[in-house]
Amino acid sequence: MADLTDTLVSRGHHVTVFASGDSKVVGELHSCHPVSLNADPELAEPEVARMLQLAEVRDRADEFDVIHNHIHSNSGCSGLPGLAGLPTPVLHTVHCFFNRDNTALFQRYREERFVAVSHHQRSTLPELNYQGVVHHGLELQRFPHRADADSDGRPFLVFLGRIRPEKGVHKAIEIAYRSGLPLKIAGRVKARDAAYFAQAVEPHLDGDHVEYLGELGFGDKTRLLAQAQATLVTSQIPEPFGLVTLESLACGTPVVALPTGATPELVQDGVTGFLRPTTPELALGAVQAAALDPAACRAAVADRFSTARMTEQYLHVYAQAAGTSAR
After folding, report:
1. Angle in degrees, CA 296, 257, 280, rounded to 5
2. Most Cβ neighbours (<10 Å): which of 22, 220, 264, 321?
3. Hey, CA dihedral for 19, 23, 28, 30, is it positive or negative?
4. Window from 16-25, 88-97, 207-216, 276-285 with minimum mean pLDDT
5. What would the CATH number be for the domain defined by 2-137+306-323?
6. Which residues contact 30 (CB under 8 A, 6 or more apart)?
7. Mean per-residue pLDDT for 82-86?
8. Inter-residue contact 287 to 175 (CB < 8 Å)
9. How far apart are alpha carbons 78 and 49 in whole angstroms?
C-alpha cells in the first residue's frame, strides 16, 4: 500500500504510517520497532510489537479523520479487536483468505467497516459490513515494458511466488513440460516448505528446461516478467487477488492461469491471457500467448488497475466513513 500513501500525500493529504522503522514512506512514519518483524531474528514474540503498534494507534486516534487498517493472515487480524470501539472511523482492507479459523473473528466484528480487494473475496463472506470493493493498483511507470526488455531470444515461461504446495509450482512445471517451453521459477522457500521444494521442484532443475532463480528483488523480478512469453499462475486455492498477475500485465506479459478466485476479474481471456481449467489447455495457452498483444496487457493495468484509480476509490470510501461517523 506504499503507492496509495505516496499518491495521497502527493494530493495534499496528511498521512501517518504505523510500520517498522526501516519502512520507506513519503508520509510521517511512526514506528514501534526499528526493523521489519520478519527480518529480526532476535525478536521472539513479534505479536507483542504488533500489539504495541495498535496501542499507539489508539493513543493517537483523535488526530486522524480516518484510520485505515490492512488485515493480513494470522496475527495480522489483531487489528479487528485492537481498533474496535474508537470514535475515529476505522476502515479494514482484507488482504487474506476467509478460512475456518478466522471466519469466527470476522463475524464477531461484522459491523466494522470492511473493503474487499475483489468481488470474489466479498462473495465468500458476504455478511460483513462492506464499504466497497477496491482492486489493488500499480504505478505503471515502475514496470519495464516487454517490448523494451533485453532477452536472449529464447522464449520461456515464468512462475513467480512463494514456493509452497498451494501456490502450485509443481503444476507450472508440468505445464512447461507439456508446452515444450522452458520455465524460470523465482520465489522464497521458507523452512517449512523445504521438503516440498526438495520433492516437487528440485528433481526437475536441470539449468535448462527448469531453472530456479531464488528470491528476486523488485528490479530483477520485473525484468524477468518483462522478458517472459507468459506468466503461469497456478495457485491451487482461490486467491482473493493476485499481485503477480497485475505485475505481469504491467510489464506487457500475458498471464496463463486457472480460472479460480479473483483471477477472472484481472485477466481478460483471449486478450491479456488465457484462463483454462486443465493442464493440457493451460499448456496450449502458454504457447498461444506469444500471439497476444503486450500493449493490450499494459493498457489493461493503465485503464483498470492504476494507483490513481485505486486512490480515488479509497478517497470515496474515506469520505463515506468520515461522513457517517459520530464525529
Report:
1. 115
2. 321
3. positive
4. 16-25
5. 3.40.50.2000
6. 16, 17, 18, 19, 56, 60
7. 95
8. no
9. 12
List the domain boundaries for the chain.
2-137+306-323, 140-304
140-304 shares the fold of 2-137+306-323:
yes
Which class is domain 140-304? Answer: alpha beta
> How many Cα atoms occupy the beta-carbon half-sphere of 11 within 13 Å?
13
* Across 209-224, average pLDDT: 96
Please calculate the CA angle 103-107-108 and round it to the nearest 5 degrees.
115
How far apart are alpha carbons 196 and 167 in whole angstroms?
11
pLDDT, residue 152, reads: 61
Q: What's the distance, Cα to Cα, between the start and end of the chain in Å?
A: 27
Q: What are the grid coordinates assigned to 314, written together?
A: 479509497
Q: Is the pLDDT of residue 44 over 90?
A: no
